[in-house]
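Action item from last week, closing it out:
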Amino acid sequence: MYFLKFTIRPILLATLWISASEFARNEYLLKSHWIRHYADMGLVFPAEPINGVVWGLWSLLFAVAIFLLSRKFTILQTALFLWFTVFVMMWVVIGNLGVLPFSILGKAIPLSLLETFVATWLVARYSD
């Protein structure tokens, strides 16, 4: 019961928060940027259900990483380190591939920081 309450619950709460945050940001706030950018490249923005499943898995892996690092570091250290490694490095890679609409960064940077800090706080709050 301890494992369920103090390990699984914080990871699931963080996963739900990350998934909801990603969905709201990319589906409601930034989708037009993504669609327009892909159309300008002659591509269709990938929006199949499998893409949502992969983002759900990404959210779970992000939450697990938060849980593991939060065992050794403060909330601030965990959040900043993971924000940099998860988001900044992702933007560098997809920017290098030419599929990042740089116009999203003005909204994506503060919202991804908020997402990461809240997820880290949830893990810290609900784990031992």
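Closing note: The mean pLDDT is 95.
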